[in-house]
Amino acid sequence: MERAEILKQIKEAETKVEEMIKNAEENKKKAIANAKTEAKKILSDAEAEAAKIKKEILEKIKAQIEKEKEEIRSKKTKEIADFEAKGKANIVKAVEFLYKEFLGMMGHA
């Protein structure tokens, strides 16, 4: 082989290596860009899922609180009704007691 042909082959090899390096750099940049895009999508999806779960949890908690409020309200309403019924029953007893006391006082007077 002649010296000119060897230099030509070396030059061609260098050009191929430079092109391979350039292609590798471009592929690296594309891979990084794709990875960043995919990471953003994953984060966005995760944030949306977290918001959905948070909303579901809050709705369950609100429903539970409403249920407990209604149970307390119902219990207290029943207690008030029972207290009112006892009060009305005691009024009759109190009137009878006062009437008897009055009669007793009238009998002694």
Write the layout of secondary structure elements.
Elements: H1 3-108
Account of the protein in words:
The protein is mainly alpha-helical and 109 residues long. Helices cover 97% and strands 0% of the residues. The chain contains one helix and no strands. The protein has one helix at residues 3-108. The model has no long low-confidence stretch (mean pLDDT 92).
Taking all Cα atoms into account, the compactness measure Rg is: 46 Å
SSE string: H
Q: Helix share of residues? A: over 70%
Work out the strand percent. under 5%
Given helix and strand content, the structural type is: mainly alpha
What is the tally of helical segments?
1
Would you tell me the overall average pLDDT?
Answer: 92
Q: Tell me the number of strands.
A: 0
Regions with little confidence, pLDDT below 50 for 5+ residues: none
Main sheet summary: none
Span between termini? 154 Å
Q: What general outline do the C-alpha atoms trace?
A: rod-shaped
Task: For this entry, give a set of tags.
single chain, 1 helix, 109 residues, mainly alpha
Summarize the structure.
With 109 residues, the protein is mainly alpha-helical. Helices cover 97% and strands 0% of the residues. The longest helix has 106 residues, at 3-108.
